[in-house]
Amino acid sequence: MLYLNEKNIKEAVSLNEMMDAIEESFQVYEKNSFFMPDRIHVNNDDKTLLYMPCFKESIFGTKILSLFPENPKKKLPVITGLMLLNDIETGIPLALINGADLTAYRTGAVGGVGVRHTTPKNVKKLGLIGAGVQGFYQILFACEARDFDQITIFDAYSKNIEVFAEKVQKEFPTKKIIIARSSEELVKESEVIITATPSSTPVLSNDKELLKGKHFIGLGSYKPTMREYPQALFELIDNVYVDTEFAGEESGDIITPLKENWIKKDQIKLFSNLLTNTTITGDTTFYKFVGMGLFDLAVSELIYKKAEIKNLGQNITL
Question: Disulfide check for 25: which of 16, 36, 88, 298 has CB 3.0–4.6 Å away?
C-alpha cells in the first residue's frame, strides 16, 4: 500500500489535471455511474468525525476526517484525516492519502472548475472573502483557470490577513494584491468573487447595483444555518448552479432563497448539466458547491495512478 503526503500530491499532478479530474467526475455524476452512500456524521460535543465512502467502476474509497474546532488554540489544524483507496475487485487497500491536503486541493479544484465554466475568459480581477486555508487554495485554482492580474482579499475577522496576503503575493509575485477594507470595496474591485467563510449571515451587501454583472463562486455555507449571499443576488441571476442535488438540503444559500421565494426550484441547475447540455445565461452568475465523496475519489485515483508512474510516496506493508 502506498502512503502519499502533500509533497507527493504536488509532485504527482498539476492543478489543471485535478480540475480535469473534477470535470470527469461531473460526467460520472451526470451518468449516475457511481454509488455514494450518505456521508456519516459522528458528533461528540463540538468534535465531528466524517466518513465519506464512494464507489466507481474502476475503484472505491473512503475519506475519514476529524473536525476539532478548538485545535487552532493548540496550533493544530481543524481538519485532519485520511483517504483510503481500495481495489474494486478484491477490496485490498491500495493507498492512503493525507485527508486534509486532499480536501484542500479537491475543494480548490471544484471551485476552479466553476471559474472555468461560469466566468468570461477575459476576466482580470479576482476577489476573495475569507482569508483561511481554503481561501488560499481557491485562489490557486482560480488563477490557473483564468489569467487574473489583480487579487483583492477581505476578511472581517482575520487577524492575520496581512500574512495571508504576503503568502498570496509570494505565490504570484507579478499580480497586484489588495487588502480591502470592506466587502463593498472588494466587490467594486473584482469581477469574480469567491466566498469561503462559515458565516451565518450574508457577507455581501444587499445592493443589486453593486452585485450586478459579477460572477460569484460560493463554498462557505455548507450547513442549513450558514449563509453568505443576500436576497439582491437572487433577484439578478437566471439560475443557481450547484454541484450536487443535496446542495439544496445542506446549504442555507439554497434553502433560505427557496423558502423565502427569492428563487424557484426550477432555477436550481446541476453544474454537471451545464457541462454536458446547456450554456450559462445572464450577466450575473452564481455557482454554489458543497462537495461530495465522488470528487475525493476522482482526484485520489488520479493522484495514486500518477504517483505510481512517478515512483512517489512511501510503500507500507500491511
Answer: 298
